[in-house]
Fold:
Amino acid sequence: MEEDLSLKEFQKKIDKWIINHGGYWPPLSMFSALVEEVGELAKELNFLEGIKPKKPNDSSTGIGEELADVIFAILCIANYYEIDLNNELNLVIEKYTKRDSKRFV
Structure:
């Protein structure tokens, strides 16, 4: 396993990988890939929670891999639009902290 990377470092690493593998897809194609990955995550959750059994020929990849696939797809979209998700996540946490400070207490 590699060392722990920050979100910004992962964005850079993925950007290099994408550039070396044909470049970014058009935005709507990347969004479609994200939706596909979210569907695969839903399938894993349904299986794990006992809601829906897997088909006999379906191999389990696990929730961790599916979550990572979703994050990869999100980072690709962020990179395409040059969005610093490190910064955006900090802003979102600040927003939730202010907005919901007494909501769940």
Summary: The mean pLDDT is 95. Helices lie at 7-20, 27-48, 63-80, 85-99. The chain has one domain: 26-99.
